[in-house]
Amino acid sequence: MLEKINKKKLLIISYSELSANTYYEQIKTLFSDNIILDKLCIEGPNIKKEINADLVLVQSQDVFKFIKPYMKKEIDVIMANRTISEVGLKKVMQIEEGASVVLIDESKEMALQMVWVLYQLGIRHIDIEPGYPGSNRKVYKDYAIVLGTSTWNQYSCKKVINIGNTLLELNTIIDIGEKLNLSSILQRQNIRESYREIVTTNFGLSNIIGLTNRFESELDIVLQILDDGIIGIDNKGIICTYTEMAESIIGYKKDYVMNKHGLEIMPDIPFKQALKNMEAVKEKLIKINGYDIVASVHPIIHSGKLYGAVAIVRKFSDIEKNQHKFRQQLIGKGHVAKYNFEDIIGESESIKKCKNIAKRMAKSDSSIMITGETGTGKEMFAQAIHNSSKRKEYQFVAVNCGALPESLLESELFGYEEGAFTGARKGGKLGLFELAHNGTLFLDEIGEMPINLQMRLLRVIQEREVMRIGGDRVIKVNIRIIAATNRNLKEMVRKGEFREDLYYRLNVLPLKIPPLRERKDDILFLINEMKVEFGDEFHFTEDAKEVLINHNWRGNVRELKNYVEYLANLELEYIDVKDLPFNDEVDMNENSLTYDEKKMLEEFLESADEKLDKYIFIMEELKKSYTSKTRIGRRTIYKKAKDKGFFISEQEARLILINLEKFLMAKVYKGRGGSVITEYGIKVLKYLKLEMSASK
């Protein structure tokens, strides 16, 4: 009987019966039979009688103004702070960016309040207009957001999204318990279940912990809704709070730790430091029971008095997973590996062998160097390796080292701090190394990376840490590097164009992709697969098949795909030799230069400058001697030039021969051994003469 007499009454007053019922059930679940709970709806007839209750919960200021004349002065009033469920928030997040949206609530004040709540919860991609009875707006909108079973809608909308009834915020529940002396009731686990699906706007919870001197039991219950583990001690170091999440993270059972000395049971948690200095200890990495734990400790102080401390603990592995999710949100959907080994098709032994090697490499964490001609599918192999590795759940970040100037490539790879240079983005920028953390970084065309950046890349590979441009903080990264090139890196190392130490760091697992001309069995097979992609069913004559198989395919699979697309657009049922796009091509094997050879030729032309005609003259003389299987020296070259009225001194001929040898176009023998042109020199001579004749 005494229990019933001491019960206090809470009266819920709202606009609609639906809202009152929602709050009624939520409070009833938490406080059970420990309070007398009633509800009152102001819809319909006006209130004509005096309101009697220990505490009144009102839905808005407008409701309070309406019922104030009927209330006794001694009655406490709480304004309901509202929020929504996770399900409702996800529905709003799925609205496309830029859509016109109206949120409909029971009054202007409540509609404005809910718009603000959604903004606090991270809805920034759409502008939401408040809607309410009496606003008299006849405006077309893309979406109307309604709460619960609300049907009022004077807006013309394409779609109505129901995000469910609003729910009471955590701080409102705590205030009810405090004002009715029922804080201890909240120790039951109902609050955890009730708030598991609710999103809260109370982001300053850790600050509230530091400023409040409420009972330790209340502190424990407030923190039950957090995904972090919470451990509370009093000012003597005795453990008085130990949540289920803390039990899961630390591993000690609650019965084992409660009411025992926390500094002795868990000495690695910096309780002692927080109690002694009366200052928070932020995110210290410790190890408990073999697990890496991140612990923060906040002292509980009120009016200068120390009441104890609260530790927030998290598994380091969980933080890593959350960082991965945040990185995905930050970088969007661009850094994803699309291809698997099943997408790399072919029946030849060479491609099958290459795929088998790559599959074995995928199991390792060592760096991979993929080499192959242009168009062989190096990036496709890199993506397939990533998707078959233990890093497949993380980012695949690709960067073309030859597509960006040195300064921009450096900022892309390493990131930068705010104000690092003119034009730097406000807040700085994450580098690709950081974005690829726990995943794979694919460095395409690694041979084009400037020599200055090669040293920084080598340090990242060795130390697994980066420092942003303009920064002073070392950031640890866990990445796997896959590099790719169509250049001869060994030759570049020999010439000093690529760091030897970096080459060996990257070339731990070499993978060479065979060119299409070495897998002729795949040519017709690939064409049949590509025909399906382009939606055509043309056929080849036997002569056309033979030409296709024997074509040099310098552009490899990429070139093949371009030709299949061309043939599909001809709309022919049968393709003959005359229909093939390369029928009249010059023999590429004889006259075309490879990528590396062209790069060397560019340097040669820059070196030759205005003396190119003299170089060509000497190369022609060397070729004539090569044909007659003799060698020729600089004195003979001088005489031949003089006989033809072409002035070249002996010293000038000597320097030209030395330069030709430098660029691998000639071989100069000591003494009277003479000089001889190389095969590359012959190719360059033909190429230059063709270019000269084409320009006339």
TrEMBL record:
GO terms for molecular function: ATP binding. GO terms for biological process: regulation of DNA-templated transcription. SMART domains: AAA. Transmembrane segments: none annotated. Keywords: ATP-binding, Nucleotide-binding. Residues 215-263 form the PAS domain. Pfam families: AAA_lid_14, Sigma54_activat. InterPro entries: AAA+_ATPase, AAA_lid_NorR, P-loop_NTPase, PAS, PAS-like_dom_sf, Sigma_54_int, Sigma_54_int_dom_ATP-bd_1, Sigma_54_int_dom_ATP-bd_2. Residues 344-569 form the Sigma-54 factor interaction domain. Signal peptide: none annotated. PANTHER family: C4-DICARBOXYLATE TRANSPORT TRANSCRIPTIONAL REGULATORY PROTEIN DCTD, TRANSCRIPTIONAL REGULATORY PROTEIN. This is Sigma 54-interacting transcriptional regulator. It comes from Clostridium muellerianum.
